[in-house]
Design a protein that fits this description.
Number of helices: 7
Distance between the termini: 15 Å
Order of helices and strands: HHHHHHH
Strand content: under 5%
Structural class: mainly alpha
Helix content: over 70%
Largest sheet: none
Number of domains: 1
Shape: globular
Radius of gyration: 16 Å
Length: 177
Amino acid sequence: MTRRAAIAYTCAIVHAIAIVVMALFLAPGLTGANASEYVAAHRAAWTSSWLVWQLAAVTLVALYATFSRTAAVIGALGASIDITSEWHYILSGPSRGLEIAVGVFANGFYSAGLLLLLVRRRDLPPLMQRIGWLVVASGFAMSAGSAFSVPWLEIASTGVLFPLFVIWAILAARCDA
């Protein structure tokens, strides 16, 4: 297995786990009237789930680095915002400011990094390019939903973004370009 394949499969697996912990343990603490009570009652699950998302950020940057240093740097900007904000989520619970930091800025940098990667690496297989463009579009849609506080757009774009990113990472593992 190549270095890229190992990183890409790790990224795909970590993101798949992150999707599950988001649905099971984080979403109830991010939405609804009883969010703060949920976080207080499920502190261990809340904390460990955010740690999974932090690992997801690191693996995303590592994967981008196998294709483009510039994309990795842009992704690292997103990861730095993401990881810092997720520690605030762990310690303080959700807030509108953290939603903007993660949804708009961190996710915006991740999407911009992949956009740059796709523009610069036109040698990528066509299916990987197409799915990559869908990831970018849904990533920017999620950022818009976060920026303008449109919950249905955030939820719908998240539901498209992360499964497609997992598929994109698996395709990256198989990419020889």
